[in-house]
Amino acid sequence: MLAAMTRTPLNPADDAFVARLPDGIVRPLEPRYLEERRGFFKGAGGLLVAPRSTEDVAAVVRAAAEARVGIVPYGGGTGLVGGQVMPGHPAPVILTLERMRRIRGVWPEENALVAEAGAVLAEVQAAAAAVDRLFPLSLGAEGSCQIGGNLATNAGGVNVLRYGNARELCLGLEVVLPDGSVWHGLKRLRKDNTGYDLRGLMIGAEGTLGIITAASLRLFPRPARQGAALMVVESPRAALDLLALAGARVGPGLSAFELISGQGLRFLADTGCPARAPLDPVPDWAVLIDLGLGAEADPEAELAAIYEAGDAAGLVHDGVIATSGAQRAALWEMREQIPEANKRIGAISSHDISLPLSAIPEFLDAVPSVVAGLGRFRINAFGHLGDGNLHVNVFPPEGGARSDYPADMRARVAGAIYDLVAGFDGSFSAEHGIGRLKVGDLQRYGDPAKRAAMRAIKAALDPQGIMNPGAMLSA
Amino acid sequence: MLAAMTRTPLNPADDAFVARLPDGIVRPLEPRYLEERRGFFKGAGGLLVAPRSTEDVAAVVRAAAEARVGIVPYGGGTGLVGGQVMPGHPAPVILTLERMRRIRGVWPEENALVAEAGAVLAEVQAAAAAVDRLFPLSLGAEGSCQIGGNLATNAGGVNVLRYGNARELCLGLEVVLPDGSVWHGLKRLRKDNTGYDLRGLMIGAEGTLGIITAASLRLFPRPARQGAALMVVESPRAALDLLALAGARVGPGLSAFELISGQGLRFLADTGCPARAPLDPVPDWAVLIDLGLGAEADPEAELAAIYEAGDAAGLVHDGVIATSGAQRAALWEMREQIPEANKRIGAISSHDISLPLSAIPEFLDAVPSVVAGLGRFRINAFGHLGDGNLHVNVFPPEGGARSDYPADMRARVAGAIYDLVAGFDGSFSAEHGIGRLKVGDLQRYGDPAKRAAMRAIKAALDPQGIMNPGAMLSA
Q1: Pairwise CA distance, residues A49 & A22, whole Å
Q2: Among candidates B441, B259, B447, B230, which has minimal Cα distance to B364?
Q3: Closest in A188, A252, A354 to B189, CB measured
Q4: Which of A338, B10, B222, B360 has the fewest Cβ atoms within 10 Å of its own Cβ atom?
Q5: What mean pLDDT, rounded, does chain B reach?
C-alpha cells in the first residue's frame, strides 16, 4: 500500500490536493502535532486539517482516498503508544478533531448524551454533571484527552471495575469510513441486534478502520454518597482477598480498587510531588478503595466495616478513611500524581499489562527476578487491581540514570516482562492500545488466527491502507 | 458463492465427503434439526455432525471449506428468527454443539468461568451458583438454549438493565474461523487492548463469521438480598417515571424492570396458563420490579419506598410486594408465561423492537392507529422497559384467527410497526437478531454504509460464503 501511495506523495504545498479540500480547514502545522509525550516517535511533517463537521471529514477522506495519501486522526494527543504520530514518508494528512467538540444533545431521562469526537473528556463529564448524571470514564489526562481518542483507543481508567471500558460506555457511533462514506450509527439504544458489531470494532481500532466523528454515550445516576479509604495491606495476595471481601459487602457500590506500591509513594517524596499518602511508615503495599452508594448508605461506615473484616482476616493493619470530600480528593490526588512522579524519575521501560486476577501475586513475586538478570532496577507496580490491570514500570536504581543502560535495554526489559505476562495468559496491552510502539509485540504475542483475521478486516475496509498507516498493524 | 457451491453439492450419502470428517461424529438427521419454533423455515436436509472437540469442529470446517459446502451451526434450536434452519439447496452440514458442553473451569476468585458452546444456559448458571456466584444471563429458554447460541445471537433477557447483554458478559472466545483455523481467545481479562474487537464481532454474528466453540464468561457476586414487586402504573409514561425514581433510589440494585400489559394478563386467563397477576381488577399496565441488594439492605422496605414515592407522584395506585422467595418466583413465573400465552393465542406478527426510552410512550400510543388501517387486532406490548426493549405482538380480535387474514398480513403489519420504530430512531431487532426472518428488514432499515462494511467483513473472513449461508446477509 505504501508503495502505491508513493505514486502521489503528498506535499503540504501541493495545491492540487489542497484544492480538493473544503475551504478553511487547512491550518499551519504546529510542532505539537508531530510529537508525543514519551518521545519515542516524531512525525515527519504533513498537512494539518481541522474539519468543522462530519461532512468536512468525509470530504478529506474522499480526497485522501483518491490521492492515496495516509490520514492520521488526531485527538488530544495524550496517547502513550504513538498512535497519533506517524514518522516516515510520504507525510500524511493530520486530521485534528479539535473544532468538532459540540455536545449535540443530552437526554437525562434516557441516561444518554451525544458528543462530537473532539469534545474533551472533562467537558463530557461536565455536560453529564450539569443534568445530575455521571459519565464515568475517568483518567489522568481527562483535562485534555478527547472522547474520540478515548473511544479509538478503548480507554480504561479508574472506574472500569464498576462501569466498564470506553467500549462499554458507548451506545452508538458516527464514523467516516475509509471510502469517505458515513456510518450514521448514533442510536441511543441499550439493545440493538441488527448486524455485526461495527461499534465495537471501530472502538479500539485506533483510527485504522475509520474516523469516529461523534458518539452516543451512556450516562449513570450519580452515586448519592461517596467515600474513599487508603488501607495498608500485607501483600498483593492480601489486597486481592480484601477486594473479594469488599465486593461481597458492597457489590456494585465498589467504584475503584487501586493498588499502590511503597516504591510509588517514595517516588512522590523523592520528586517533590506535593501529594503524600497519610501513612507512616511508608508501607510496601496499600490499596485505595472508592465507594459510590445510595442515599441511605453510609460510605464511612461501610469502609470501616471492610477494614474491620480485613483486620480480622489478617489482611490489613493500618489505614485512613476520608471523612470529607476534600480528604477523598486528596487521596485521589495522591494516586493521580504517581504517573507524574514516575515521569520525573524517568522509566527505562513502562508496561501496561493485565492478568487473570488470581495470577497477580505470583506475577508480582516473579517480576524482580526476571529483570534482575538484565541489571539493577527499581520497580513501581501499581494500578487498577480490581481490573487485573497493573502498570509495571522499571527504573534505574537510586542515583542511576537511563543513560547508564545500553540502548536496547527497553526492549530487553519489556521482553522479559511480556514473556512473563504471556506465561500467565495475560495481556501486554491492557488499556493503552498498540499504536506504533507495540506493533512488534502484537506480532510476537498475539494469536496468529486473530492477527490473520485483523489483516483481512483491515484490507476489506481500508484496501488502500490510508487510515493511520503503521498503527496497530505494520503498513 | 452459492453458484460455486453447486459444483460440489453435498449429499449425506456422499462417502467422499464423509470420509474427510473425523470418525464418529456423523449422526442420523432427526427432523427437529430442520424445524424452528415459529414454523417460518423448514430445512431441506443435510448432513448432521456432532463434534466432540474444537479439533473436530476445525476438521469439519476445513473439509467444508475444501468442498465449498455450507455449514449451519446448531445450538439449542430456540432462536426465533430462523438463524438455525437453512431452507433451500444445496443442503448444508448441520453442526450441532450438543456434545461440547463441558464447563472447562471455574475461577470464583476471578468471577470467571469457561464453558464450551454446547453447555445449556441453565447449566452455566448452575456452575456459577455452585461457587456462590451469579451468571446473570436469564431468559425464558434457559433450560434448553446453549451458551454458544446465546453468544452467537448476543442474547438479552431480563437482567440486561443491570448486567448487560451476552456480549458484555463475555471476556473471551475460542472460535473456529471459516478457513478452519482456531482463534484461541479464551482470556480471563477485564482489559485487553491488543487489536480489533474480534470477540465483539463474533458475538451477534449468528455463525456467519465462524463457530464459537467455547467462551470465557463473567460472573458476579450473588446479591445477598433479593426482592420483587408488581405495581400498577397509570401509563407507560408513568412506568418510565417510576423507573427513573427507582434508579435514583437503588442505583445498580435495580436488576429488572419489566412492563406488563393488561392484554398480556388477560391472555394468561384466556389460554388457561396457571399463572395469574395478584391484581384485581386487571390493570391496563403494570411493572415487575426486581431488586438485588447487599446484605445490610431490606428489599421489601426499598420496594415499599419506591411505591410510596410513586404514589406521591401519582404514578402508581395498586400493587403487591413479594414477602417471600416463593412469592417473588410466582411473580416471575407470571411474567415468563406471557410468551407461552401469546403462542397459544397465535400472533399474526411479533416484533422485538427497541426505542430510545423517552420515545416509548408516544410509540405505544401510536401503535394501534398504525395497524388499525390493516384490520382489527389485539396488541400485547410487554417486555424489558428498562432497556427500551419491547415485544409488540399483534393478534386477531377475540373469536378471530390468523387464517382470517390475507397471507401477506404479517409483512404488512411488521412493515407498519417497523416504519414507526424507524421514525423514532429505534431498532427492528433488539435481542432476537436477524437470522433469516429479518434479512429483508436489515436491507430496508439498516444503515447503507454499515451494510456495505458488513458485506466487506463477511467477504474478507468467509470468502466462500460457507458459514451459515443466507443468515444475516442474503447468500
Answers
A1: 10
A2: B259
A3: A354
A4: B222
A5: 95
Quick one: which of A158, A339, A341, A310 has its CA closest to A234? Answer: A310
Strand partners of residue A134: A220
A139 vs B: CB within 8 A: no
| Predicted local distance difference test score (pLDDT) of residue A231 | 98
pLDDT score for B136: 97
**Long-range residue pairs from A437-440, CB within 8 A, at least 24 positions apart, any chain:** A437/A40, A437/A41, A437/A80, A437/A81, A437/A82, A438/A81, A438/B194, A439/A470, A439/A471, A439/A472, A439/A473, A439/A474
SS (H, E, C) B50-72: CCCCHHHHHHHHHHHHHHCCCEE
Which has the closest alpha carbon to A211: A392, A382, A57? Answer: A57
> B114, B137, B190: best mutation site toward chain A, by most A Cβ within 10 Å?
B190
Amino acid at B120: V
Q: How far lies B65's CA from each of A311, B3, B70, in Å?
A: 60, 15, 8
pLDDT tens profile A23-68 = 999 999 999 999 998 899 999 889 999 999 999 999 999 999 999 9
Containing A227, the helix (H) or strand (E) segment is strand A225-233
B-chain CB neighbours of A154 within 8 Å are 193, 197
Q: Does B131 touch chain A (CB under 8 A)?
A: no
Cα(B144)–Cα(B158) distance, integer angstroms: 17
What is the average pLDDT across B429-457? 97
ipTM greater than 0.90 = yes
Which three cell numbers, joined as nine digits, stand for B353? 423492537
Residues A115 and A103 sit within 8 Å (Cβ to Cβ):
yes
Residue B274 burial (10 A CB sphere; 0-12, 13-18, 19+) = exposed
C-alpha dist (Å) from residue A281 to A84, A232, A266, B294: 42, 10, 11, 35
Lookup: cell for A402: 537511563
* DSSP category for residue B423: H
Whether residue A177 lies within 8 A of chain B, CB to CB, comes out as yes
- State yes or no: pLDDT of A6 exceeds 70: no
- For residue B252, what pLDDT is reported? 87
The cell numbers describing B262, all together, are: 393488561
Burial of B28 (0-12, 13-18, 19+ CB in 10 A): exposed
B282, burial (CB in 10 Å: exposed 0-12, middle 13-18, buried 19+): middle
CA pseudo-torsion sign B171, A454, B119, A426:
negative
pLDDT value at B5 more than 70:
no
Q: Residues A461, A209: contact at Cβ < 8 Å?
A: yes
DSSP B386: G
* Strand A71-74, strand A93-96: pairing: parallel
pLDDT above 90 (res A295): no
Chain A with chain B: Cβ pairs closer than 8 A? 265
Kindly state the cell numbers that stand for B341. 400465552
Locate all alpha helices (DSSP H) within B320-408, ordered by sequence: 325-345, 360-372
> What is the distance between the alpha carbons of residues B243 and B385, in angstroms, rounded to a whole number?
9
pLDDT the model gives residue B15: 85
Q: Is the dihedral of CA B271, B275, B280, B285 positive or negative?
A: negative
Of residues A160 and A9, more confidence is placed in A160
**pLDDT of B198 higher than 90:** yes
Q: Which three cell numbers stand for residue B122?
A: 441453565
* pLDDT given at position B219: 96
For cell 422485538, name the residue: B352
Cβ atoms A190, B167 nearer than 8 A: no
- The pTM of the full predicted model, rounded to 2 decimals, is 0.96
Q: Kindly report the average pLDDT of chain A as a whole number.
A: 95
CB-CB: which of A200, A205, A446 is closest to B194? A446
pLDDT in tens, A310-325: 999 999 999 999 999 9
